């Protein structure tokens, strides 16, 4: 059944668990997520980015998610739009039937340039007015996502476009968060607490508190009724990096957010945990390995299946680690 983000995260808050939000672009990802959810009895958040809409097209994405709901009617599913760059983008997703949208007003409409606080409040307020009138939840974002180690916002190639961010910019301010939530009435808030998007988060194996756990606590204490969201939450599994590189890939040494650090965050108010990169790495590793080990095979379903299985294992592991398992 389709449910809103508010419905699911209220339940998660009441019972103290977190929910991974996996990005979806194609059938194999969608199936991996649903089969893992079924196996672990977990509720689901699937999210579609602008890149996903560009790749698959909005109608295909919409029907992919609706097909998942039809095939797995017993599993609650939140259909979420990831990183909307304007109220107009959110409006189109609401019209398509999404039950939740992210209005990311921390950046200007180009999705790159940091926006002013006033701009963020304005666009987020407008998205919330529209969405709430339709029973749709809204996630906002306050602060600049960036690695506490490298100070970089994170990009595909590991080179940030905007240059190094200062320590202060890398952490959401609790007082500003309180003001933002009071003005915008968002259901969930993405915060900057030391994570960054993509595979290149940390250059050394992270030890101890690589995230600003105290800051998460402080923000949660100021806005206890607003669900916190952790973007850039891939753990960048070293096993999959090794498989990719063993079978012809070239990915430099890099580290992600340890699952235990995410679990610390969940203890202190994080409810939605965004994961995209980990499924990409598992899928690429499994595909490279399958093709290298089966050079005469040319039925794509064979390597799609290997990729699906690899992604499913990651999903199962996250559902179990975050306490989502058994909550459907
Ligand atoms: O936040 C970004 C997600 O990882 C989606 O990435 O825009 O390449 O689909 P994408
Ligand atoms: P990762 O790149 O760490 O998987 O983060 C994904 C994300 O935050 C999507 O919004
Ligand atoms: Zn994100």
From TrEMBL:
It catalyses: beta-D-fructose 1,6-bisphosphate = D-glyceraldehyde 3-phosphate + dihydroxyacetone phosphate. Its EC number is 4.1.2.13. The keyword Glycosyltransferase does not apply. Pathway: Carbohydrate degradation; glycolysis; D-glyceraldehyde 3-phosphate and glycerone phosphate from D-glucose: step 4/4. Catalyzes the aldol condensation of dihydroxyacetone phosphate (DHAP or glycerone-phosphate) with glyceraldehyde 3-phosphate (G3P) to form fructose 1,6-bisphosphate (FBP) in gluconeogenesis and the reverse reaction in glycolysis. Belongs to the class II fructose-bisphosphate aldolase family. This is Fructose-1,6-bisphosphate aldolase.
